[in-house]
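This part of the workshop introduces the protein records we will be handling. A record pairs a protein's sequence with a compact description of its fold. Comparing a sequence with its tokens is the quickest way to learn the format. The record below serves as our worked example for the rest of this section:
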Amino acid sequence: MKIDTHQHFWRYRAEALPWISQDMPALQQDCLPIDVGASLAHAEVTGVVAVQARCVEDETDFLLGLVDSYPTVLGVVGWANLAAPDLAQRLSRWSHYAAFKGLRHMLQDEPDVSSWAARSDINRGLASVQHAGLVYDVLVFDHQLADVVDLCARHSAHWMVLDHLGKPAVRDWARVTEVADRWRNGIAALAAMPHMMCKLSGLVTETDWPGHAGVSTTDKTTIMACFDFALDAFGPQRLMYGSDWPVCQLAAPYAQVHGLAEQWAQSRLSVNEQAAFWAGNARRCYGL
């Protein structure tokens, strides 16, 4: 079994997805499970986790609504306002959906991640999420990793998942020395917490992708090195495969994203560790 733990789906409306810029024509269209079905079948991926792309509560309803029509959607990581005083009641209305597995906020877009992570209402909300047995996905850029270490340490009652390996700036890796150092330090700090999982996803879009088709040999080497560091830090039982489809298509087709992960896994992991990476860890973390 293979599970892709990070895919996004939407019916495209520009005002609903303001982060999709004019430089992203591949994303300015409906992106639904049927549109990635052939790529999943070719890669022998049998299930996916749908992750929010809009910070509105009807995003969660929309993603849960896909489950009945598309059996490949095994789990949903939706959105809710963590600061809402009635968050527990809001979560309860989704609790009868077996596919409702967690929440995410686009924290990378907050103007001050450190201040957001220190807010008492956010921390109360995150405690409610974990009390409900829900996973929380953490989305930050590499320069923001240090800002979420304390937040993640405070909330250890259930799994938290670092998306996209903390988004290392692959495009600047060789040019700016401190990029690799700050990313490694942040990853090491989060990986030291046993309740943290990590998705090997989304790195292709951290390359210098505009105007380029596919991933260069240099960027591939950097991505593989990041995967290796993650393996040393988290170990094989806390890493999961994810594609970040359809966003990954800005830099590379699904087949190449999957191929990078497959090449790495086959060369670095035992047979049992590969089974954990492709599906076992996702099933354990998200309760799929």
